[in-house]
Amino acid sequence: MTQIIKTEPLTADAFAPFGDVLDASGDPDKIINQGLCGRFNDRALMDFGPEGRAGVSIFNAEVRNFPLKLDMVERHPEGSQTFIPMSQNPFLVVVAPDKNGEPGTPRAFLTAPGQAINFHRGTWHGVLTPLHQPGLFAVVDRIGDTPNLEEHWFQPQYVVQS
Q: In the chain, how long is the greatest CA-to-CA distance?
């Protein structure tokens, strides 16, 4: 039997168990560049373990539509992962709490324009899911030689609705 998940707005408090919300809310920490730029400093806990380093990649993902089949989540035990959209379009973020090494009931968040996210190391999450063209993202994650991907396939699957 398919289970339905409804989306919720992405807020820092709701997302805190899974990672960080990156945005320019509140007052900047510092004004730089001759007073023309507000710096919102150190917005994500980046963690790449002892055997990795940070890498910046560009992902070009296919746009998805609701209702969305959710049959798989993944996690990265060796490093955090940040998705930064290269447009002002919202995207879908799916996460699940860890329940004894397997994902619990997923939650689905809709970002607001201008928000990015950072998954903490070991967080179960859905794949990159843009809802509008272009599906272009900068991704900061761990580069290293040790395995850093675990997948879990749901039986039964979930369906995400807006």
A: 59
